[in-house]
Amino acid sequence: MSTTCKAISAESIVQTLRACFPAHERLALHEPFFGGSEDAYVSDCVTTGWVSSVGAYVDRFEQDLAAYTGAKHAIAVVNGTAALHISLKLAGVQPDDEVLCPALTFVATANAISYCGAIPHFIDSESNTLGVDAGKLSDYLKDIAVEDGESYRNKRTGRTLKAIVPVHTLGHPVDLDPIIEVCERYRLELVEDAAESLGSTYKGRHTGTFGIANAISFNGNKIITTGGGGAILTDNTPLATRAKHLVTTAKQPHPWKYEHDALGYNYRLPNINAALGCAQLEKLPQLLKWKRSIYSTYQTAFSETPQVRIVGEPDSSQSNYWLNALQIQGDRSFRDAIIESAHLQGIAVRPMWSLLNTMPMYLEAPAMDLDTSERLEQQIISLPSSAILGAP
Ligand SMILES: *Cc1c(COP(=O)(O)O)cnc(C)c1O
């Protein structure tokens, strides 16, 4: 039996995938690539004893990240979720505020909002960028937002609409200009979830440098990894100082006294992880080339298959192609048939994340009509994208 969609079978899609990288018998979804100074830098930490939360590699990693992205400041932290949490605090998010974010994202986006005591308010995405649909959002806010002093309130819940967290989904830059217009119109703070998009640019400028404070991730499956890690990017010097303080348990600098002047967090990135990060960052330009080449391979392979779209970078953007993906025409059962069949052949493809508004902790959260997110969730399949697959 074969499941079909407009005369194309799940098996034929999987065969095309199988033929993309014939030299690789099994295809992981995303493996890290270590091919540079990783050993040397990590050994240096062990040899010198500087493995923990203070050390030269932390400072260097932060400087290198700022230089690479063009952000004025980078603050290295334990993971991307912590980077989002602190970025939202820097943006002034308070308990009981509402923060707009896509329903189609990794759960960390909404969790970080919840850690602030705020409420995620789920908004729809569009299929070109897989990110926030600013036009639809703007129409929606005309309906539900009322001016109240300095800010706008959701007239249905009475809560302040404080910020928006767009996500650069799978590495593809979201269309930021119309989102920034919505922010200006409704006095929303912009915090980018750039966890997946290090190296991607929107109109020539790096993602993660548009919002007041923005988050990147260096988890093991991201384009570069520190084992686990993340960073906050900001151009605002007082906020950068505040961020460093908050992630260092809000301890006042002193040679021996334990004085903490706020509720802080132990969110600093250890030096040994930063050492890995310095080595990985040196490799990033090469990894970006390899990722782009993986995209071309998939694109060429499916160029004669109109029923399948390989997700490409939006106009006026350069994507890091962190995770390549295909979009099928059809429903969840067709998607699952492809995923099942691929797994049997050693090809680790994945569905998108389940929509956050369907998860038990977010069932009560406010949400707009999410019809495009619902369709994308059923139709997008992430493809094996380890950088090594694009090596010449
Ligand atoms: C990976 C990821 C995060 C969180 O990063 P961690 O380092 O895993 O905490 C947040 N948002 C998105 C969209 C991600 O993909």
From TrEMBL:
Uppermost EC category: transferase
Short name of one Pfam family: DegT_DnrJ_EryC1
N6-(pyridoxal phosphate)lysine PTM positions: K222
Annotated keywords: Aminotransferase, Pyridoxal phosphate, Transferase
MF-aspect GO terms: GDP-4-dehydro-6-deoxy-D-mannose-4-aminotransferase activity; pyridoxal phosphate binding
EC number(s) recorded for this UniProt protein: 2.6.1.102
Gene3D superfamilies: Aspartate Aminotransferase, domain 1 (3.90.1150.10), Type I PLP-dependent aspartate aminotransferase-like (Major domain) (3.40.640.10)
Record-linked SUPFAM superfamilies: PLP-dependent transferases
Reaction it catalyzes: GDP-alpha-D-perosamine + 2-oxoglutarate = GDP-4-dehydro-alpha-D-rhamnose + L-glutamate
Active site per the UniProt annotation: K222
Highest taxon of the lineage: Bacteria
GO process terms (BP): polysaccharide biosynthetic process
Pathway: Bacterial outer membrane biogenesis; LPS O-antigen biosynthesis
Family membership noted in the UniProt record: Belongs to the DegT/DnrJ/EryC1 family.
NCBIfam families: NHT_00031 (TIGR04181)
Name of this protein: GDP-perosamine synthase
UniProt organism field: Roseimaritima multifibrata
This protein's encoding gene: epsN
